[in-house]
Known about the structure:
This protein has about 725 residues and is an alpha+beta fold. It contains 26 helices and 17 strands. The longest helix is centred in the C-terminal third of the chain and has 55 residues, at about 580-635. The radius of gyration is 29 Å and the shape is globular. Adenosine-5'-diphosphate binds next to strand 9, strand 11 and strand 14.
Amino acid sequence: MATFRFRALEEVLGRQPLKTSPPSSRISDYFSDNVFDMGQMREYLSEEALKSVTDAMTNGTRIPRGVADQVASSMKDWAARKGATHYTHWFQPLTGATAEKHDSFFTPVGNGQSIERFEGANLVQQEPDASSFPSGGLRNTFEARGYTAWDPSSPAFVIGNTLCIPTIFISYTGEALDNKMPLLKALHAVDKAATRVCRYFDKNVTKVHSTLGWEQEYFLVDSALFNARPDLQFAGRVLFGHNPSKGQQLDDHYFGSIPERVHAFMRDFEYESHLLGIPVTTRHNEVAPNQFEAAPLYEEANLSNDHNLLFMDLLEKTARKHHFRLLLHEKPFAGLNGSGKHNNWSLATDTGVNLLSPGKNPKSNLQFLTFFINTIKAIHDNADLLRASIASAGNDHRLGANEAPPAIISVFIGSQLSAMLDDLEKSIKAGKMTPADKTRLKLNIGKIPEILLDNTDRNRTSPFAFTGNKFEFRAAGSAANCAVPMTALNTIMAEQLGKFADAVDAAIAKGMKRDEAILKELQSAITASKAIRFEGNGYGEAWVKEAAKRGLSNVRDTPRALALLRKKEVVDIYGRHNVLSDRELEARVEIELEKYRMQIQIESRKCGDLAMNHIIPTALRYQNLLIQNVKGLQDILPKTKAEKASATQVSIIEEISERTETIRTKVYEMIEARKKANKTEDAYEMAVAYCDKVKPFMDEIRYHADKLELIVDDELWPMPKLRELLFTS
Ligand code: ADP
Ligand code: MG
């Protein structure tokens, strides 16, 4: 009988691309059709209701109960026309995924009668049974209630037959149990601080919003092969498997032509995304075989993040439809590139100005410089907070693994802007500026747009790079919820811009001219944040040494990165901007530590199981075949000839014995290490024990198992091999 692996391969080779055809070749004909967006609201809502909702969207004002009833009823009518029979509050619990609980519009009213009902109260607030979502101790078991509350700044949408309403998720006592609420608070904080700074330059600015454009990387594997790999099923990454003799060395996959089956899948998820108003525009192959990327146009950060979560969900569902399985793990295949999710980030005013894009006149260039330099300073002062915001078990494999940005946070701005900042630093003199100084400065600042025009300078190895009109935070993992790094980034920007404005105001109060006060403050920010600027190769060993000399942190694993969130400065910043209280922050640390520990625990169990019941038995079966062969040779050949003829077999028999014995010993030692780690009381100590004492065994066990894969008869090997996972489609 053919092995599972060969049957799975046969299934894959018989697959045909699934055809999907959007109703029109013009995306604009159906874009956002399934979203209750501004256009729909104008059609369905009364003027009063529309005004109330737009106020809530832009200023966070409360929607009166009567209006909420109106909105709910119109939303239901609209959704029903789209085929919706149910509604759900769609939220982002701290598990990292999204959650939904569906309720029917259908309401029995007695006497066998029923109506379709959806009231303001159902729209505005729900009480899902939340006891099994992580709360990090914020909810006592006797008070398991959690509430979801409507976020009017992100529009409702219909998927299948369900109306989905984006919501925040909070405890009975009002503490955040999700990722959306802190993000909204951070966006509010940065709005306040950035608007204050903008008003030095333009009094018309009344609001600043943060923009986010994500780039989502992922792998695809055929579902038949996936199902024959218990490690992929349970851990999201392969725990065993020798690397194929051809990997990504030839760089022939990057931007190569997209296989037909994958292309059909992409067309399908793009169509679904467009219906939901997700402006996906870019698709291409990535560096590793079977790795791809998709990216939308950027949007306001809260909406963009909702769209990313929705998009990950769509990818997963569409992949299954096409007999693929989606791998969002940061490093499914050791030795090949991992997957990240670049967060392109900027700030924009309600007057339509991108604050990280230089303008046409010296004033707007000074505004650009102000935001640009303050960003660098914010990263310099809060690198640890940013590092912690991208910590996860999966991302540990990626950060610093020679193809992803290192765990050391630094900022890349390109050689020309570097020269410009160095020059600015020198030309702003202590004491009063002479007219000549001022002219020189003006000229310098005036040159910025030209500098950026041919700023082709790109450094792929930097975790935080300026790319012409935005910064790109590249260290986030592919499975991450961008809300976490975006909350961190916008909070530290609020902190920095607030400090900056305080200093400028103080100087102005002492009689200094405004522009001069701004320039002086920028100069001191340039000087103070120099250590974080790095233009060289972030992947090299030399940088690790250099960064240490500069005093930059290099925190390589998740437990230790999460511990940074307990530093007083971090707790204070989150508290000061009302983003996360110390209790909320501590709850998050606990939850993330536990998530880390559980992830390693699952991997370690799966590794042990597969070693004991897949790999060792297969190796022994092959060993038995060899033993029979050797015995047979002894039966038919004279002793000396038989010895010679069985030399290869005997050495393989011996190698199998040695390796299986090592694997067995290591598996038992790993189990002991887990038992010991589990006795630890403290969440941090336990996570560290899993990281330092349990995790290393998996590499050792894999090393010997992969050697066995190379000598055991291909036909006996049960699990699909990496070359099959990566090169069959
Ligand atoms: P790449 O980094 O792959 O070379 P680009 O630099 O063209 O690609 O842009 C990548 C992403 O940056 C896109 O998703 C785009 O929407 C986003 N982006 C562009 N401008 C901004 C901005 N002002 N704020 C946030 N994201 C932006
Ligand atoms: Mg990019």
